[in-house]
Specification:
4 copies of one chain form a homotetramer. The first copy, chain A, is mostly helical. The first copy, chain A, contains 12 helices and no strands.
Chain lengths: ~240, ~240, ~240, ~240
C-alpha cells in the first residue's frame, strides 16, 4: 500500500467492508469449517478446484468486456485489456492441481454447479452493463484474497500433504495478485469520484464475495452427496 | 519476414491477393489520385484524418471482442487482448494531427461519414461472429499498409509542408505496426489450418480494404461538397 | 393440461421437481412465513413489489434475446418474440400497485437489492448463452406460479384490505399466465429431445426459483432494516 | 397513407429522399438494367434470391435487438418484438422460389457475397447501437419497396415465365408489407422528435438502400463470373 492510496477515505471504508464480509464468511462457511478442522479430503479440494476452474475461465473475458464499453476513459480501458491478457489461461492451473493429486490430464470436467453459474452470470452482468467501474469491486477482493485465505491454504496443504507444485493455482496467484491488488486499489482510488461510484464498487465487492461463499458451500453439499452416494456427479474423484 | 512464415504458401497467396487489391485501390481511388497529383489540401487531409479517428476509435474494442469469444485458444486470446491494449487511444493521434494544422484541440468533430460507419459496422461484425481468425484479415493489411501508402504520405507531407510532429498518426503507426505486422503474419501462418480459415481471413482482408477505399473516396466527395458550398459539414475546416 | 403434454414423462418429472422446490420455498422462506402469519404490512408488500418491478422490467428483453440467437428453430423463435411482446410493460403494474396503496405515481424507485440483481443477471445469462431451450425452465415455474402463491396473495389481500384493482400485477398475470403456462409446457414437451435438454431446463427452473426465494428473503431483511431504522433505503414507504 | 402521417413535413422530406435514392438506383444499377432489358436468367435471379435469403435471415433478429435495448419506450419496444415475430422465417420463401425453378429443396446454399455481409453487418450495427429509432430508416424503404420494384418483378416474371407460386417471397411480402409500411410511417412520424432523430433515420434509410444496390450489382458480377467460368461458386445454378 502506498501513501497515495492510504490517504483515500473511500478506499479505507471499502477495505473495512471487505474485512467484515470475509469475517462473516470465514466464521460461517461450512466449506471453510471443514478445512479449518483438518477434515478436507482430496475429493473435496478437487471439487472446489473444479468450480474455481469454471469461473476463472471467464475472468479474462468479462474483464475485457469492461474495456470494450469504456471508450471514454483510455487509462481504465488499457488497464482492463492488460488485466484481461494476464488472466488468460489461469483456469488451467486449477485443472493441473486437480490432476496432480492423481488424475490423468484430460479427465472429464463436471458441469459447473448452479452456484458457480450464478457467480459467472453475475460477473458478466457487472461487466457488460452498469457502472464500468463496478467490476473493480470484484477484483478488489479477489486479487487480495490471499491475505484472508492463506491460513486455509496452509491447512489444505498440510492436511493433504501437498507440495507447492501441486498448488500452482494459489501459489502463482498469490504472487501475481499482490501486484494486481495494488493496481486495483490505485485504480479505484483514482477513478471513483462520486458516492455512487464508491457504492457501485462496494456492492459488487460484497455481492460477488457472497456468491463465492455460496459456491464454496455448494461444493460442500456436492461433496456430501458424493460421499453418501446420492449423486454420481464427479464420482471418479472418489478414487483420489 | 522470418523463414517460418516465408515457407507458408497460404500466406504468400494472401500477400499476393493483398497486393492486387492495393494495386486496384492505388490506381483507381479518387482520393489517392488527388494526393498523387499534389492537389491535397489541409482541409481534405483533415477530413480524411477525422474519418480515420472515427474508425480507429473502435479498433481496440472490436479487437478485444475477438478475444472475449475465442476461449478455446489461449494463445490467440492473449494476442487479441495484448493487441487491443496497444491500440487504445491511437485515434487521439489522428485528432492531434488535425489540430496541429491550425485548430484548437477540442474542435467539434463531425459525425462519421456513412462509408466510415459501414467500415466500423463490418469490423465489429467480423469480430463478434463467424470465424474468430477472420479479423486477422483486417490486421493483415492494416498493420502493413505503410508499405503501400508511404509514397502517398510523403506526398501529403511535401504538398502541405508538414513536419513529422504534425503526422504523428502515421509516423507512430509505421513504427509500431512493423512489429505488429510480423506478429499478425505469424499468427495467421500458425492458426489457419483449413482452406476455410484461409478464405475467411482473405475475405475479410479484401472486404475491409475495399470498404476503406470507399471511405477514402467518400472523403473526396465530402470535400468537393464543402468546397462547392453544397454542405456545411465540417465547414470550419475551410479556415485551414 | 392437454393429453399431448400429459403423456410426456420428462414433463411430469419436471413438474414433480418444481413442486419439490416450491414446497421447500413455501415451508422455509421467511418472507412467506410473514405473509402466512398475517403479519405483512403495506411497506413490506411494497418492498416486494418494487423488486418485482426490477426483475420484471428485464423479462421481455431477455426473452427476446433467446429468439435473437435461436435462428435454426423458427417455431421457437416466433414463440420467443411473441412472448417478449406480451411481456412488455408488465413491470408497470407492479409500480401501479405500490402507488395504489397511497403513493404518488412517480415516487422514487429504490435501486434493486443485490439478490434481485443476481436474479436478473442469471436470467440474462441463461438467455444469451448455453442451450436456448433452458430459459423455458424459468417460464415453466414463473408462468404457473399462481397455483402455488394464490393462498399467499389471498392472505396479503385480506391482511392489507386491498381491492383487486390494487393487485393488478398478480390478478392480470394469473389470467395471462394460465394461457402462457400451457404454451410453455407444450413447447418444452415438443422441443426437449435429449436428457441434456431436460436437465438444462430443470436446472434453470430450480436455480431461478431459488434465486427468487433469496430475493424474497432479502426483501424481508430490507424491511427489518427499515423498521429498525438501520437503513434509509425506501424510507418513504414507512408512511404507508 | 392516413391524414395523420401525411401532415408530417419530416416524413414528406424522408419520402422525397427515398425517391431520390431509388431513382439513382433504378437508373444506374447494372442488375436492374439487366432485368429491364429482359435479359435476366433463372441463374441470375436465383443468385439474387440467395443473397436475399442471406440478409433476410437476420431481419427478425436485428429487429428484435432494437427492442432489447429500447426499454424506455414500451410502445416502440412492442412494435419491435411484434415486427420481429412477423419476420421470422421469411427467408425460407426466397429459398422456396429458387427451388421452384428446378432445384431440389436442400440444395447447397453458397456463402453470402461480401456486399451482402456488409449489408448484414450494417443492419446489426444500426440495431445494437446508436439511436434506437434509426433502424426504422431501413424498414422505411424495405417495407415499401414494392412501389419501386413492382415493374422489375413483373419483368422478371415475364422474362422467366414464372407463376406467382414461384415468386412467393415477393408476392407474400408485397401484401404483408403494405400494412407494415403504414405502421412504420406512423411510428417514424410519432417517435422522431428532434432533427437528429430525423437525420438518423434518413441516414440509415439511404445507407442501407445503397448497400442493397451494391449487393444487387455484386450479384451481377458473380453471375458474370459464373457464366464466364471464372468462378465455381454456385455452379449448380447453371443447370437451371
Amino acid at each position: 500500500m502506498t501513501d497515495t492510496t492510504k490517504a483515500v477515505p473511500g478506499l479505507e471504508a471499502l477495505k473495512h467492508r471487505r474485512s467484515q464480509v470475509w469475517d462473516e464468511l470465514l466464521a460461517q462457511s461450512r466449506f471453510v469449517r471443514t478445512v479449518q478442522q483438518g477434515e478436507v479430503t482430496k475429493a473435496l479440494y478437487a471439487l472446489y478446484l473444479i468450480e474455481t476452474y469454471h469461473y476463472t475461465r471467464h475472468n479474462a473475458r468479462n474483464q475485457a468486456l469492461v474495456g470494450v464499453r469504456c471508450d471514454d476513459d483510455r487509462h481504465y480501458q488499457k488497464f482492463c485489456f492488460n488485466h484481461a491478457e494476464e488472466e488468460v489461461g489461469h483456469e488451467q492451473m486449477a485443472l493441473h492441481d486437480v490432476a496432480s493429486m492423481g488424475l490423468q490430464p484430460g479427465f472429464p470436467i463436471p458441469r459447473a454447479l448452479p452456484a458457480t453459474e450464478v457467480l459467472i452470470a453475475y460477473l458478466y452482468w457487472v461487466s457488460y452493463q452498469g457502472n464500468p467501474l463496478q467490476r473493480l469491486g470484484y477484483s478488489f477482493w479477489a486479487e487480495s484474497c490471499y491475505d484472508y485465505i492463506r491460513p486455509l491454504l496452509g491447512k489444505v496443504q498440510k492436511t493433504l500433504g501437498l507440495t507447492p507444485a501441486q498448488m500452482t493455482f494459489f501459489v502463482a496467484h498469490s504472487d501475481i495478485d499482490a501486484e494486481h491488488s495494488q493496481a486495483v486499489d490505485e485504480m479505484i482510488a483514482k477513478k471513483c469520484k462520486t458516492p455512487e461510484d464508491w457504492e457501485d464498487v462496494a456492492q459488487v465487492m460484497e455481492t460477488s464475495l457472497r456468491l463465492t461463499w455460496r459456491m464454496m458451500d455448494e461444493v460442500s453439499d456436492a461433496y456430501a452427496q458424493l460421499v453418501d452416494g446420492r449423486s454420481e456427479r464427479a464420482a471418479f474423484l472418489k478414487a483420489l
